[in-house]
Each structure stands twice: as structure tokens, then as C-alpha cells.
């Protein structure tokens, strides 16, 4: 694994970003002065319990929200709107367009953005559908696929665009444990193959360590940076090992130390 | 606390693992359905059966009543229908009605498209459409006919006006509801690809809201039909080349009850064809194929 090449500038810079959104009754501060940098080839994980603003942060990077403080830039350009250079994979299965087949779904963003067209787009789409092992299902409509297959299509669709950075918002959270593990392995294989850059949001410590190469740990209410850790040395095979468990425990304590003490008082339900 | 003696403990049983699962005893794994089951699974067969049964009941009742002036039997009506369709005025009446209907329907749909576009693009448009639909949707189109006659006189413009009124609000309301219920994930996905403005509406919102839009088109069609026939009954009286409504009215005056039924039958048949052939074909190619509707 090539270590960050020292002088190469990061592709994504998030600098002191505070994000707020309004509900009908409150103004919620989701993240407070969060900074981090993502380098090319990173599998950068945003990890934290619910309410730490990690999904909001991802939406900010995607361009769906603008920060009230701080700045976000991709390759030096300030992020001010959504765009196909930051393809997003959502948690929800309904992110595929139900009126298009798998192949058409993968081709759709390519043609919308005008990056590739016609036969070339179709060829690229088939190539990436093959990479996520769905060749047999290319001409099937999404409602006939299982949840895991739909997420694979969404990943193929995003990767086919060759985005600067791939944004994944808890993509495996709604899957069963076996499928999730398989999908994590597939993602790592794909990364080994294509070497894309991914910003991955999860609330599972285990998933963060397995999938990520670097983890940004966020604390909740509002989300603030608690730590930035390396985990590029771990994959599924390391899972039983002591180093893996040490890291897992370390992050766990970081996130839940205070809460456990608070909860122990009113436990025993 | 639960008493220790009453706590249920399942017995511990020996484990086992089978090397080969014998496959001879499965019996039938898959069996083709019988010919009858397959035919009966066709929707149109079941529906046609209902129609045939209804026609049979009608025929029996008409014959036992034996009073063609009040309630002619099905065979009389079919005969009158056939006669007037082939030689009489029924075909031309029907074409007149369909012409006006299509004109009004198309105009209503265009206006609905304008209103919904306004409603999804601006907040003012949204308020405008919501208020107007709340005001005018409950207002029966036929109640506007006296006004329409005053403004546009006797003739097609008045009919088109009331049809537009009956189509516009129902279609706009459904389409707008459909747009509003498009999921955030799909919206974000579309914006993520850089889609904006018209192409965003065309490529994401319209297909995603298509089930509601289609429902609106169907309701609009039914409303247009009812309004038109009712309007023709009222003022076909002084119009020489009337439509189906006028045909029904005229034959009632002549006490040709079988022909009145034939007129009603025509309305029903056209409704069935549009619903069962045109809308059904659209549904099969779109929402049902996409799994958005069963």
C-alpha cells in the first residue's frame, strides 16, 4: 500500500466547518468547526454515534448544504452545489430510479453529465456492472433485486462516473450481517482494483476499521473532531487479532466512556 | 420473580449432520397449472365473465317484466344499438361527443401542466394551486354551465369550458401530490448528477410521480365524460348536431327506451375501452413494469 506521497496536496479539504439545519422548531448545529483532509486513494471514514452530524457533514461535502462557518473545497474549488464529481451512494434502497433497468440506471448519470454517451456509456456501464457481479441482472428493473444487489448497482453507478471522490452514507446499514460483510469485502477488492477515493460514513466501529484506511472519530451534539486514527493495516482477516480488538476498544471507550457511566445508573430494565 | 420449579427448560437433544439429502422423496417440485387455472388467471377473462353474467341477468329480468317502454331486454337494446350504429345517427353522435371531449381533455391537461409547473417551482405557485383546487375542485362543473352559456353561447366553446373545469383541478391536484411525495433520496440522487430546472423535472420528478399522474389522468378522463354527457343533456336541446347526451335526450322524448339504453351503453363501452385498453396498456408498460404498482 503506497503511503501518502508526502508533498501531494489533499483532494478534499474541510476547514473549520460548522453546519446547521432547521427543523420546524429548532435550529440544530450538526457539526462544530470540523476539519479534515482527504488524500487521493484514501478510504476515509467518518465515525460516530447517531447525532454526531456525520451524515450532515457528508451532505455538506456533496453540496446539499452550505456551511455557516468554515470552507470546503475539492481540488481547490469551493463546494457550492451538488455535482457529479462527488457521486453519492445513499443508505436507502430507493436511490435507484425504478423506471430504469440496472444498465440504464448505471448509464443515466454518465449521460446526464454528458461525460460519456451512447455506446461508450453502455460499455462502461457493463464493465462496472460486471465488477459488482451483476452481469446477469443488467436488464432487470430495480424492484426485482434484493437490497444488497440494489446497493451494488448504486456503487457501480457511482464508480462508473469516475468521481473525484465517492461519498457513501452508511451504504450497508440496512443490510443483513452476512450480506454486509460480503459487500465490505467486495468494496475492498474494488478499491484494490480501481484505487478510488472514498469518504465513508458509518456508526459501526468494526465496519470503520475494516473498510477504512483512516478514521475521523466524531463526538455527538454537536459533532466535533475527537480523533483521527490510522487503520489501513486491518481487514476482515485481522478481525480476531489483538491489535484489531485493541483499536476497537480504544475507539469504543472514546465514544461511549461518558455514556456508559451515565447509563449504568439507570440500567437493569 | 419466577419460581425456579415452574421455569421451562427445553430438553437437550443429540446433534446430527446429514451427508446427502435424499432427493427422491420430494414429490413434485414444480407443476404447470391446469388449462382452466391459466385461462382464469387472465384478468380480462374474469372481467368479461362478469359482463356476460350481468347481461344475462338483464335479459332475464327484461323478459319477465315484459315492458319494453320501461325496461327493454338486453337483446332489444343490442338490436337498437346495432341498428342505430350502422344506419342511424349513433356513430356520428358518438364522434361529435368524442371530438369535444378530446378537445376539452387536452386543454385541461395543458392548463394542469402549467399550474403544476408553477406550483413546484415557486412557493407562490404552490399556494395558488392549493387555494384554487380547494375552491374549485368541489364545485360540480355542470353548475358552471349556465354561466358558460352566458359567456360563450350555445356550442362547443361552452362545453369545452366546463370540461376544462372538471379535468383541470383533479389532474393538477393529483400531479402535484405525486411530485410532493417523491422521496428525498431520489431528489438528491437527481441533483447529484447535476440535473436542474426543466431537465430535473422531466427526468426525475415526472417519472417518479408517474403513478399519481396516471391516476389523475384517469380521474380527469372520467370527470370529463360525466360532465360532457350531462352538459349535452341540458343544451343539446337547441343544438342540431348534438352528441351522445342529445341522442339519449331525443330518444327519451320519442319514448324509444331501447335507444336510450343504447346511448347509455355506448357511453359505458367507450369508458371500458379507454380504461381497459388504453390506460391498461400505459400501466403495463410503465408503473407495473417498474414495480411501482401491482
Q: Architecture of the largest domain in chain A, according to CATH? A: 3-Layer(aba) Sandwich
Q: Rounded to an integer, what's the Rg of chain B over CA atoms?
A: 28 Å
Oligomer: heterodimer
- Superfamily at the CATH H level of the largest domain in chain A? P-loop containing nucleotide triphosphate hydrolases
Task: Classify the helix fraction of chain B into a percent range.
Answer: over 70%
**What is the overall silhouette of chain A?**
globular
- The average pLDDT value of chain A, as a whole number, equals 84
Question: Any idea of the CATH class of the largest domain in chain A?
Answer: Alpha Beta
- In total, the number of strands of chain A is 10
Largest sheet of chain B: none
How does this structure look, described?
By secondary structure, chain A is α/β, with parallel strands linked by helices. Chain A has helices spanning 54-62, 102-113, 118-131, 147-160, 177-194, 205-211, 242-265, and strands at residues 12-22, 27-38, 43-47, 69-74, 77-78, 86-89, 165-169, 198-202, 214-219, 224-230. Chain A has 2 domains: 8-85 and 165-251, 3-Layer(aba) Sandwich (Rossmann fold), CATH 3.40.50.300; 98-162, no CATH class. A 6-stranded mixed beta sheet of chain A has the order 6-7-8-3-9-10, sandwiched between helices. Chain A has a 4-stranded antiparallel beta sheet with strand order 2-1-4-5, with helices on one face. The model of chain A has no long low-confidence stretch (mean pLDDT 84). Chain B is mostly helical and 294 residues long. Chain B has helices at 35-40, 43-65, 74-86, 90-121, 123-136, 145-152, 156-180, 184-192, 197-208, 210-235, 244-253, 257-285. In chain B, helix 7 runs antiparallel to helix 10 (210-235). Classes of the chains: A alpha/beta (269), B mainly alpha (294). The interface between A and B is medium-sized, with 23 and 21 residues.
